[in-house]
Specification:
- This protein is 40% helix and 22% strand.
- By secondary structure, it is α/β, with parallel strands linked by helices.
- Strands 1-6-5-2-3-4 form a six-stranded mixed sheet.
- A hairpin with a 3-residue loop joins strand 2 and strand 3 (30-36).
- Helix 4 (120-131) crosses helix 5 (139-153).
- It is globular.
Length: 167
């Protein structure tokens, strides 16, 4: 089970350790993945992990946890920022419960923080269109994960606004 930190605690940890952060955009079928750049000012899209249907023994969840843990280790991430799909009103709805269940099932040693992801997919689509990048399988999910991560990184004070948020 993952340890969940407040955004404030996650930012303190990032400041204290200087480590990278990983961003996740969780949907029913895929998980977009992004990592912070060395200066922790941008989210860099890495790709997407396909989610399988759950089986009775939780093997599908374990496989996803292993893939995320591998990304954490490969990039030296000290925090994982998971998109928190609030309703437009700011209320927590069905999607928040689904994401919370996913986070609760993650077997990560790395702390997780939940980051408001409202408009991240829209921002990702706009960024991909502006860059002329094709919306290849998983590209939108990874770009949304980068936008989620940049929302967290903006709290470090060193983060600059990026193309995901209106540049």
């Amino acid at each position: 089970m993952a340890t969940i930190l407040t955004e404030r605690a996650a930012l303190r940890l990032l400041r204290r350790t200087g480590c990278a952060a990983l961003g996740l955009d969780v949907s029913a079928t895929k998980i977009g993945v992004a990592v912070s750049d060395p200066g922790r000012t941008r989210g860099l899209p890495l790709g997407a992990i396909r989610r399988e249907k759950l089986d009775a023994r939780g093997a599908a969840t374990r496989r996803v946890s292993v893939r995320i843990a591998e990304a954490v280790a490969a990039h030296g991430a000290g925090v994982v920022a998971v998109g928190w799909p609030l309703e437009l009103s700011g209320a927590e709805g069905k999607r928040c419960r689904e994401v919370r269940g996913f986070v609760d099932d993650l077997a990560l040693a790395t702390p997780v923080t939940l980051v408001d992801e409202r408009f991240s997919t829209r921002a990702a689509r706009a960024a991909l269109a502006e860059a002329g990048a094709p919306a290849a399988r998983g590209a939108e999910d990874a770009a949304a994960a980068a936008a989620i991560l940049e929302t967290l990184l903006a709290g470090l004070g060193s983060a600059r606004p990026s193309r995901f948020f209106g540049d």
